[in-house]
Structure formats: structure tokens, C-alpha cells
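#lab-general

N.A. 3:47 PM
ok so I finally got the sequence cleaned up, no stray characters, all 251 residues accounted for. can someone with queue access submit it? mine expired

B.Y. 3:52 PM
send it over

N.A. 3:53 PM
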Amino acid sequence: MPRNLKLTLAYDGYDFAGWQVQPDRATIQGTLLSAIERVTGESAMPQGSGRTDAGVHALAQVASVNISSPIPTANLRVALNDTLPPAIRVLGVEEAAEGFHARKSARAKTYRYRIYRGEICQPFLARYVYHHPYPLDEAAMMSSAAIVIGEHDFTSFAAVDPEARKEELLPNNVRTIYSSEWRREGQEMIYSVRGNGFLHHMVRNLVGVFLMVGKGNLNADGLRRILEARDRSAAAATAPASGLFLVGVEY
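B.Y. 4:20 PM
back already:
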């Protein structure tokens, strides 16, 4: 009898070409698919809550998958972790309702971006942060974070990519941001953002603009103008993938 399962995953995305299956490239989805096939004997494609980019990490990505195997959920979690590479861990496997879909059922997501501010970044940390030891007006970055809260058209912060909307739930670039904040923790500046959905590269593009604020190249009014322009060319460069984490998905 078919079962709909909800998998919660953590992964180090550094050595992967993102979530989505790609020919001849290691991806999170493709690696998980192979592990499921090896454990259950079924070729069941897991559907993620969203497509994280190459080099992006996850603390609690969610995937749904339909299988017929009777393996108990706890045993399946153990078997998958025995099969998967150490960079991908299955934190939990749960029976889900028939209509549950990791992407379509999602109501909110939270992302975190880490900037290491120290002069020397330890090699054991480098793949999980963006190292930026240069001067930044951190107070200005903190005070400008709230500007993007609310419902806005985020076209200025979306990748110019014809494939970007293929799996989007909403038919346009309007998204609602529930919280947006920068904080200092030790040697790191950390950006946390929670919203009902995110466009391709949206968080990294937001970080790129906040960095312009920190460098003194942009003020709060300028950030508002970029948001209102609805034009990707009006915004800043995309921040590196290494500092970005998908923290959690809400249903």
C-alpha cells in the first residue's frame, strides 16, 4: 500500500550542485533518490520544500516521497543514513497525510546567512560562512533590515532565470516577509529572514544589498528605491552561497 512520507534532512551543500537532480552532477535530491532506491528497491523521487542552490546548506530541509515499502519509519531513517554520504543526514522520517507535499504544503520558511568578520577565518569554518573582514557599518545594516518586512514585489531581488518560477507556488514575484534582522554573535554578523516563500537567489541578493548599506554605498532610502524598482539590475551582486542555510520549513 502506498505511503506518503515526510523526511527532514540536514546537509552540507558545499560539494553538491544544489538540491535538484542534474545530469552527471552530484545533487542532494539525486543522492537521496539513489539511497531510497537502494534501501527500498523503489525509484521514488523525493520532492523538496524548495531548491537550494549549489553550495547552500540546510539544517532542516523537508522532503516528501511516496513509497510502498513496509519498512518502519525509524528503521528507514537508520537505513538511509547508513547509505547516504556523511554530508547528508536524515533527521527524521514520519508518516504524512495523503495530500502532504513538501513544497506545496509549506506555509513559511526561515533562512540564515552568516558573515565571518574576523581577520582570519579558520579553514574548518570557511565553507559555512562568507568571510568579510573589511569595514562595515553594522548598525546601519541592522536598522535597514526591517525595510523588507511585509508584502512586496521582490523582482529586484530575484535571479534573472527563466527556470526560476517553474516550481513557484505564486504566479508572480510578490512575497511576504514576516521577520528580517541582522545580529552580531561573536565574530559573525548573522542575517535571519522568515517569509511565506522566497524567489531564486532572493536571500543572497538581499544580503548583497545589505552589504552595500554596510559599506556606505547605499542608505535606507536607496534600499527602498531598489525594492520599489522591481528591476534586478537595480540591486547589488549576489552574496556567496557558502554562508546561506535553510533553517526550517513550517506547515
